[in-house]
Amino acid sequence: MPHGAPLELTGVTVTYGPYDAVRDLDLRANAGEVLCVLGPSGCGKSTLLRAVAGLEPSRTGTIRLDDRQLDGLRPDQRDVGLMFQDHALFPHRTVADNVAFGPRMRGLDRRSVADRVDDALRLVDLTDLAGRRITELSGGEQQRVALARAVAPRPKLLMLDEPLGSLDRALQARLLDDLTRVFSELGTTVLHVTHDQQEALAVADRVAVMRAGRVEQLGSPDELWRGPRTAFVARFLGLEHVVRLTVRDGVADSPWGPLAVPGTRDGDHDVVLLPEALRVIDAGEPRRDDELAVTGRIVGRRFAGDHLRVTVDPGTGPTLTVPVWRGSVPEPGSDLELALDPQAARILEPETTTRSTR
Fold first, then answer.
1. What are phi and psi of 212, to 5 degrees?
2. Is the pLDDT of residue 75 over 60?
3. Would you tell me how many other CB atoms lie within 10 Å of the CB of residue 32?
């Protein structure tokens, strides 16, 4: 099985005509790390992956893998495995033939190729389907064949471009567990590109959130979730409550009342409320002295599996959405009392420029 190597990009710019798809980007993936590059369509994340693979030339900067400079090398000389979003499998060949493609291109002998194929198919739990044609497989099985083909050459770096993007939600959820297990067993360095924040947070050791060709923020899933730096990062991660507040003498004048946000300096700031900032106050339940009481009218309820997402209109400022995990929920039109914890609010940095992060 592969052993990971560090990947380092320094000052990398990739240009399409007058447009910089990737701009002066610095980024490092540590050996054996799963690094997810997360961002919306057009932010440059797939272009970044293609530049590392040698499929797009970089205009400036250097790309190094295991302290070996990749710039100028052909894709087959870079020791990287790439799994495309559309899988790019040979449809009328067998599963085993597809997985054997990479090891054969590297000139390995027949016995070594067979061993690589067996190892890769065992890793993705497809040994029993080795003789099937690709056209006879389900979408999830084809996804696993594509992953096996990418790892069969035992690259130092495995790269995946939106690997679950073409699958339905239910299948994505099941295959996320497969990806997590495979990454753990491989021990190789992984560069995983996606626009799905749940996917990134589930599989990554660290996540690089991209915007306009640069990395806006880099950190562990927990660091990003609990400490987004900008409103863009907060909203892209799915944090719903981002508001613009004016702070005087360390207290924010919020639509729901005075909010003493920790570490606040005076001025106008974007503030995000983390999910734990809001809770329903049950009848007779005490509220902490530093919590704000917010009463509003229920204007919506949405089923979310094991809980309901309840939207409350406090009458001043934006609506607030809170999870309700147990008990009965009043009907829309009823009043609901919430507690707002200022300790779970975060001041966000201005968004005047995006940043390149290492």
1. 50, 45
2. yes
3. 17
